[in-house]
Design goal:
This protein folds into five domains: 64-159, Alpha-Beta Plaits (2-Layer Sandwich); 167-302 and 414-477 and 739-788, no CATH class; 313-399, Calcium-transporting ATPase, cytoplasmic transduction domain A (Distorted Sandwich), CATH 2.70.150.10; 487-513 and 621-720, HAD superfamily/HAD-like (Rossmann fold); 518-617, Calcium-transporting ATPase, cytoplasmic domain N (3-Layer(aba) Sandwich). Helices cover 48% and strands 19% of the residues. It is built from 26 helices and 29 strands. The strands form six sheets. The chain has a seven-stranded mixed β-sheet with strand order 17-29-28-27-18-25-26, sandwiched between helices. A six-stranded antiparallel β-sheet has the order 9-8-10-16-11-14, with no helix packed on it. It is elongated and about 120 Å long.
């Protein structure tokens, strides 16, 4: 005869036996997982769970080896290609993690994962329930990372927008079920006990009162086992990881109340507190649910670009138009985009023109005219016209997807104040446990009947939930607001550093100016015609990606160039018709520059002879003036590789007193290091390839959306709409965010300092402690959400 698992009700294996003693009887189980849970329930004195349950529990997850085998699918190359970014031996992935309740959960996951050999970086965004993990692929597999997260009590899988939303809805539904059960049972237990307390039923006998106690126990047990399960599981995960979190004191308080009341009922002596216990859990869940909803609202604003993630595209195959999944598009394929459709991919327009809404990238709602040769971006909307676009990059590497990933990475880089707060919260929880213990023993000598409740009040009232929310809630809202306004923040800790910046270095070309050069003057020193000089110049520049090259793009008399080379920040050289030419800055030439050519910013040399000097001019961005006029409190320094005369002219027009011309990438870097050596906090703004080193060296770095890929990879902040005056918004928000964090932390600490004496002296009842703790946390979240306005 086949037996059934005592825990989950499934058939037991006829070949393997798993059993333990529960309530004096031997019970059989189907697997080691169910056996382990039953033993844990028994060891913690919760055997009554099996007496009062009305249905079997879910089957427990398989043993670790089985889980690892199941997760091995995530090591498949096709999975890795879709979800993992790999460069050489280093990989990075975004994960959706279910089971996260508070900042302590994020801290626990980070601390546990970083212990794995091969993990290089871990960042958990509690608000978005997402994590960014970087690891060395030669030392660790993705399946092992996911398995380790499973072992500490959380569930992780590669982030997908649709599944992430589904995960939130499942968690939200479970939250409401726990809250609903707690609310229903609270009403029932309160009705019974209020009748007893206020003698609403008239004089009742002791047996009737005892009967009410047993009914209250029966109604309260599901609240402890189911509704309060998240508090216990969170506390257990922390203790298993040899740490403490905010749910530890809450779990202790709930357990003390339950077993005290259980003992009083069983012994028919003393006072029961079932109605208070149900009310505590109900109020705690309301608080957590409101926090959960508020954090989700903030994270949704931050992640709203996922709404623009295209799903389908129309591929042009000869005369056929074939609908396909956007993520399946390959480079060089041609896509048809009609009016009103989302652009499904990053690409170049090869036919047609249109008016595009790029507000999701830039925050600006004015339509942008696009025509042949212009680039379009996935997620923008083609409002007018029909476009044929050639795919430049797969959807996985589109700017939209990169922004989405960078948003998560930004929250993974915590500012110093956040790290200090997290550490303080951990020690504070330990302090709360010690104070509660002292409180209990002190009140045993004062009034034994109140000792338990005073201790419970201390445990609940001083739980540092608000302190844990103080920093992450403010940072989430700040990042969300910047994203909404076309500013991409790659590191959240950059906001903290921005408030301390007192030295700003500015590149000229493409940053303060539009990077659209035109030839103003050509001084020919040879017998060659000016057209010949310009032909040689245009031929050399045809292979250059520098903005200067665009000034010669209209010349058609292009000659073939051999042995072409380019030096960043210096110039280019090559052979034309057997003659060697160099084109670039004055410092790139091997010959002296005559005084009458010093105002030029580009020079042409052949062998050891200077052929010509060229003066190229650029247009100053309108946003540059707006930025400079509103940022006078910092020291501004213009650093450019252009000719000193040109740099001086731009500096005078913008009112910048300190400037440096003819700077190489090395000398630019020396200037930044020198400023830092003088105890300055340096912000560098640049957009070119030659700005990569200085952007990486600066304390905070900014580039424009039109900047080079190297500049964007080195920068901390990207201004997607190329408006430099958006930096004023960033500076103002950084100050507001810091103020909000300080306000939140000050409130959290002040609240705990205020309620601790009240709770310790017995002037704060447990149910008031629950309300106070809940209101304290909500005040922090609401205060942070004000950053979104």
């Amino acid at each position: 005869m086949t037996s059934h698992c005592f825990h989950c009700g499934l058939d037991n294996s006829p070949h393997q036996s798993y059993s333990t003693i529960i309530s004096g009887k031997q019970q059989n189980f189907c697997c080691p997982g169910c056996l382990a849970v039953a033993e844990a329930i028994t060891q913690n004195g919760l055997e009554d769970y099996y007496h009062y349950r009305n249905e079997f529990a879910e089957k427990v997850d398989s043993k670790p080896d089985d889980i690892l085998k199941t997760l091995a699918v995530f090591d498949d190359d096709s999975i890795i290609e879709e979800f993992v970014d790999t460069q050489q031996n280093h990989s990075e992935i975004q994960l959706t993690i279910s089971g996260i309740n508070c900042a302590a959960c994020g801290w626990l996951i980070e601390k546990q994962l970083i212990k794995l050999q091969g993990i290089t970086k871990v960042g958990v965004n509690v608000s978005a329930r997402r994590a960014t993990v970087s690891w060395n692929t030669t030392e660790l597999k993705l399946s092992q990372i996911l398995n380790h997260i499973e072992q500490i009590g959380y569930h992780a899988k590669p982030f997908q927008a649709e599944q992430h939303e589904a995960s939130y809805r499942i968690e939200n539904k479970a939250f409401l079920k726990r809250l609903g059960l707690a609310g229903l049972m609270t009403m029932q237990v309160m009705m019974l006990n209020l009748g007893v307390f206020f003698d609403l039923f008239g004089h009742i006998e002791a047996d009737t009162k005892q009967y009410f106690n047993w009914i209250s126990l029966l109604l309260t047990t599901p609240v402890i086992i189911y509704s309060a399960s998240e508090f216990y599981s969170s506390a257990f995960r922390a203790i298993a990881a040899k740490a403490v979190n905010m749910d530890v004191p809450i779990s202790i308080a709930l357990t003390v109340i339950y077993f005290t009341s259980l003992f009083a009922t069983a012994q028919q002596t003393g006072q029961t507190y079932f109605e208070s216990l149900c009310m505590f859990v109900f109020l705690l869940l309301i608080s957590r649910y409101l926090e959960h909803s508020a954090r989700y609202k903030a994270s949704q604003i931050s992640a709203n670009m996922l709404e623009y993630m295209p799903t389908v595209a129309t591929v042009i195959n000869g005369s056929q138009h074939i609908p396909v999944l956007a993520k399946s598009l390959k480079v060089k394929q041609q896509v048809l985009i009609k009016a009103g459709e989302l652009v499904p991919i990053d690409g170049i327009i090869i036919h047609g023109n249109g008016e595009l809404n790029e507000a999701m990238l830039t925050g600006e709602f004015d339509l942008v005219h696009k025509t042949i040769g212009n680039q379009v971006y996935a997620g923008t909307i083609n409002q007018l016209g029909t476009l044929t676009v050639e795919v430049l990059t797969p959807l996985k590497h589109s700017i939209l997807n990169e922004i989405s990933k960078l948003q998560t990475q930004a929250m993974a880089n915590k500012p110093q104040i956040a790290s200090i707060t997290d550490t303080f919260a951990q020690y504070f929880v330990v302090a709360v446990l010690l104070i509660a213990t002292v409180t209990y023993f002190v009140w045993l000598n004062i009034d034994e009947s109140k000792a338990l409740w005073v201790m419970v009040s201390v445990l609940i009232a001083t739980c540092p939930c608000a302190l844990g929310l103080a920093t992450p809630s403010a940072l989430s809202c700040a990042v969300a607001y910047l994203n909404k306004n076309g500013v991409l923040l790659k590191r959240a800790d950059a906001l903290e550093k921005l408030t301390k910046v007192n030295w700003i270095g500015l590149d000229k070309t493409g940053t303060l100016t539009e990077g659209k050069f035109s030839l103003k003057e050509c001084i020919n020193l040879t017998q060659l015609s000016t057209d010949d000089i310009l032909s040689i110049t245009a031929s050399l520049e045809q292979y250059s990606s520098h903005p200067i090259a665009q000034a010669f793009s209209q010349y058609n008399n292009i000659q073939p160039v051999t042995d072409f080379t380019a030096e960043v920040g210096q110039g280019v050289q090559g052979f034309i018709s057997g003659n060697h030419y160099k084109l670039g800055a004055a410092g790139y030439m091997n010959v002296p520059i005559p005084d009458h050519l010093l105002h030029c910013n580009v020079f042409l040399q052949s062998d050891e002879k200077l052929l010509a000097g060229l003066l190229l001019t650029d247009i100053i961005r309108e946003s540059s003036s707006n930025f400079i006029n509103n940022i006078k409190q910092q020291e501004l320094v213009l650093i450019s590789g252009d000719a000193p005369s040109v740099v001086e002219d731009v500096a005078k027009q913008l009112g910048i007193n300190t400037w440096y011309g003819q700077q190489t990438p090395e000398t630019k870097l020396d200037l930044i290091k020198q400023a830092q050596a003088q105890d300055n906090i340096v912000l560098m703004v640049g957009d070119g390839i030659n700005d990569g080193p200085v952007l990486a060296q600066a304390d905070v770095s900014v580039t424009l959306g039109a900047g080079s890929d190297l500049a964007k990879s080195s920068a901390d902040i990207v201004l997607l709409d190329n408006r430099l005056d958006k930096l004023n918004l960033v500076f103002n928000l950084a100050k507001r965010c810091r103020i909000k964090i300080i306000q939140n932390i000050s409130w959290a600490i002040a609240y705990n300092l205020l309620v601790l004496p009240l709770a310790f002296t017995g002037h704060l009842s447990p149910w008031l402690a629950v309300i106070g703790m809940s209101v304290s946390s909500l005040i922090v979240v609401v205060n942070s959400i004000r950053l979104l306005k």
